[in-house]
Structures are given as C-alpha cells and as structure tokens.
Specification:
This protein has five helices and no strands. It is mostly helical.
C-alpha cells in the first residue's frame, strides 16, 4: 500500500484503530470493556459485542488488504462506508446513554466525539479516490 497517497495513510490509521478495538471486543469481558471506557456497550448483549468485533476486524482488513495484495481496490471504500455505519450507531448509543442519565451526560457526550471523528475519517476514506 502506498501510504503517502490518499487514502493510504488514513486507511492505515483506521485499520489500526479498528483492529485494536475489534480484538479487544472479541476477547474482553463486557464489565472490563465498560471499565476501560467503552461505555457504549452498557446495554448491548455480549453476542452483539462479538458481532461488532468481527465487523470491525473485517472492516480493518478491507481497508488495508486491497492495497497490500494489489487487487480488489473497490473493497476499501466499501469497508470504510461499513465502518462509518458502525460509528454512526456508536454515536447514537452514546447519545441515548447521555439522555438517560443526567450524571453521565457530559461523559457520554465527550465519548460520542470519538465515534463521530472516526465516522468523518471513514467517510473521507470512502469518498477518496483509490490508487
């Protein structure tokens, strides 16, 4: 992958973030994930957390593998768009948590900035020309 050509470097950064996040969700226990700051998982069942983990790991692979193997360049924008949908869902979950508990409102609104930032970067990668 040519990391100097857009969207190579942002796609690589997103792949690193989603690989780490997906791996932690795949093996971590729900209470530990919540204690470490993934408060959006509070009302999500464990099976769905594992589904999110697999989705994040597949999305990360879809961001970098086409550039590494030189085929399937159409996969990068699709993977980025799918990850953007996941981040939109995460932002909505944090907004719902902020609405339900006034004491946690500020924290959840701050936590919402992470998926919104990742959403913006995913959309940028999805709409950038593929090399």
């Amino acid at each position: 992958m040519d990391a100097l050509n857009p969207p190579g470097l942002p796609a690589l950064a997103l792949a690193l973030v989603f690989t780490l996040s997906g791996a932690l969700k795949a093996v971590g226990r729900k209470p530990w994930l919540i204690r470490t700051g993934q408060t959006g998982l509070t009302h999500i069942p464990v099976w769905f957390i594992r589904l999110i983990a697999v989705s994040e790991l597949l999305g990360a692979a879809g961001l970098v593998l086409p550039g590494l193997v030189g085929v399937g360049g159409f996969l990068r924008p699709i993977a980025a768009a799918c990850l953007a949908v996941l981040m939109a869902g995460a932002a909505v979950v944090h907004l719902q948590l902020a609405r339900e508990d006034a004491q946690r409102r500020h924290r959840e609104l701050v936590n919402m900035t992470i998926p919104l930032s990742l959403l913006a970067l995913c959309l940028w990668v999805a709409h950038s020309p593929t090399p």
